[in-house]
Amino acid sequence: MVVHSKPPAMEQLSKPNHRAAFIPLIDLSKPDTKAQLVRACEDFGFFKVINHGVPADLIRDLESEALRFFSLPLSVKAQAGPPDPFGYGDKKIGHNGDVGWLEYLLLTTNSSSDYHKFSAIFGRAADKFRCLVNKYIAAVRKMACEILEMVAEGLRIQPRDAFSKLLMDEQSDSVFRVNHYPPIPGFLESDGRNLIGFGEHTDPQIISVLRSNNISGLQISLKDGRWISVPPDHNSFFINVGDSLQVMTNGRFKSVKHRVVANGSKSRLSMIYFGGPPLSEKIAPLASLMQGEEDSLYKEFTWFEYKKSAYKSKLADNRLGLFEKIVAS
Ligand code: OGA
Ligand code: NI
User: Fold this and answer.
1) Where are the beta strands (DSSP E) in the chain?
2) Alpha-carbon distance 315 to 98, whole Å?
């Protein structure tokens, strides 16, 4: 008799005119989710996490501080810009012409960095904001590391901190981003308009941890190219596999293509921690996932080189394409 292992718990997405689609749901309080995690990373590059251990009051406090910032007049917020690389940004994403219906804060995860751009505006509240950001980042980084360690175990990779140590490294080049998608003036649901909040892209780092308020907008692309809406859930986190993890697993995991469609009538707030390696780190498939070096699907590059190249590209470009080996046919 064949014993089938229980399929991972899935959340059903109802999307009119589409075959029902599912996204994997991982309960971090359950002892053995390694195999489920690996499958979710292979099949979707994306999953939802519950029982994550990040304190609800920390999330709530940071969200309300962020909303307080975004409620300031544009002329005041602009004093905390431009996001070069850290600070306030409005509509423009990157330097290559991408725009979206959003404003955002890009922050370093290095707790010793200064927040001088914010103290001018926030006054003493800048310290409170910074303190909350640092606590939040520490909590989501811990969760990301637990996930990466379980993934390593699921892939039978030694040592189990092969991925997570890159996030824990003092030199880790990680980023924290708060996106605010304001309502669109004159928006009518009946228009059927679909304005882009954040254009389609993959995240270049190792892993991204996203949390949003209860307003929809996030969509992911499935392997067959269909886009599905991710129902928002302010009590949970959503995890994206990034380009670097795709390379480190030699393509076994796929970085998930995603985008945000502007909701129009209600404002969406999302906070994303992008866990990245140190700049000097070589991004290459782990030896245990290949037969030999020549099996690598990718040319060798450092995170610094990849980032430099990604900054020159448009959001929707296939950034990893430049680093794929040309396979002779
Ligand atoms: C991003 C991103 C999604 C969101 O910032 O890379 O994909 O919901 N954001 O803001
Ligand atoms: Ni993204």
Assistant:
1) 10-13, 21-27, 46-50, 87-93, 98-108, 175-181, 196-201, 207-212, 218-221, 227-229, 237-241, 258-261, 268-275, 282-283, 301-302
2) 7
Active site residues: 268
The residue to mutate among 212, 218, 261, 268, having the most atoms of ligand 1 within 8 angstroms of its beta carbon, is 218
Burial code (b: 16+ CB inside 10 Å, e: under 16) for 32-56 equals ebbebbbbbbebbbbbbbbebebee
Identify the DSSP state of 198: E
**Distant-in-sequence, close-in-space partners of 113: CB < 8 Å, separation ≥ 6:** 86
Nearest Cα neighbor of 223 from 38, 30, 40, 35 is: 40
Which of the listed residues 239, 241, 258 should we mutate to test ligand 1's pocket, taking the one with most ligand atoms within 8 A of CB?
258
Question: Is residue 211 lining ligand 1, measured as CB closer than 6 Å?
Answer: no
Question: Can you tell me whether residue 206 is helix, strand or coil?
Answer: coil
Mean pLDDT of 238-254: 98
3-state helix, strand, coil in the chain (%, to 5): 30, 25, 45
Whether residue 147 has pLDDT greater than 50: yes
How far is residue 32's CA from residue 280's CA, in Å, rounded to a whole number?
34
Could you read off the pLDDT of 283-325 as tens digits, one per residue? 999 999 998 888 999 999 999 999 999 989 999 999 999 999 9
Altogether, the residues listed in the chain come to a count of: 329
> Which residue in this structure is represented by tokens 């993890």?
245
Mean of all residue pLDDT scores within the chain: 89
